[in-house]
Automatic annotation (TrEMBL):
Keywords attached to this entry: Membrane, Transferase, Transmembrane, Transmembrane helix
MF-aspect GO terms: transferase activity
InterPro entries for this protein: DUF6787
Protein name: Prolipoprotein diacylglyceryl transferase
Organism: Flagellimonas yonaguniensis
Domain named DUF6787: residues: 90-166
Domain of life: Bacteria
Transmembrane stretches, start-end: 16-38, 50-72, 84-105, 125-154
Coiled coil stretches, renumbered: none
Length: 171
């Protein structure tokens, strides 16, 4: 445990939540990906589908952990954070925000009254994708605040909007 605390620069016990949450969410993601492939290839319902899940999920999990550690090294000097554990919190916020924005866009398009049944598919998907952007921007700062990273994400948001030529909305 001490080695984990040193590696992620954990000062207080509550901060251990982020590496543990990151590991748990990575394992859950691995399971869902493998389960999706099992169902896509029609292996579900067979006696060996659980065996595929048990064998492939840990392999994918370790592959994803290696990938995320590589990502941490790439952004370590770009992102100005005080402690390494904050990078885990930031990655979790990005993952949750992207997933939530994608999920919320569907019901919002439906609420507006534009469904696949009453508009052309290209119009539906174009509007849905365009709605993801503002939803993502709002959620990014909100979820970042919940994870104690408000300042990082507010600065990130301002920088992104300025680069897109939308900095006028920040005044």
């Amino acid at each position: 445990m001490q080695k984990l605390k040193q590696r992620w620069e954990i000062q207080k016990n509550w901060q251990i939540l982020f590496p543990l949450l990151g590991a748990a969410l990575t394992l859950l993601t691995s399971y869902f990906i493998v389960q999706g492939f099992v169902h896509s290839f029609g292996f579900n319902g067979y006696a060996y589908d659980w065996l595929i899940l048990i064998v492939v999920t840990p392999i994918l999990y370790f592959g994803l952990v290696k990938f995320f550690l590589w990502c941490f090294k790439k952004v370590e000097n770009k992102w100005k954070v005080d402690y390494k554990w904050e990078m885990i919190a930031i990655f979790i916020v990005f993952a949750l925000t992207g997933s939530a924005a994608g999920k919320l866009a569907g019901p919002l398009v439906h609420w507006i009254g534009l469904d696949n049944e009453n508009v052309h598919g290209a119009v539906y998907w174009t509007l849905r994708i365009l709605l993801i952007f503002p939803i993502y921007q709002i959620l990014l700062v909100g979820i970042g605040w919940l994870f104690g990273q408000y300042q990082f994400f507010w600065n990130f948001e301002k920088k992104m909007l300025k680069r897109m030529g939308l900095g006028v909305f920040l005044k």
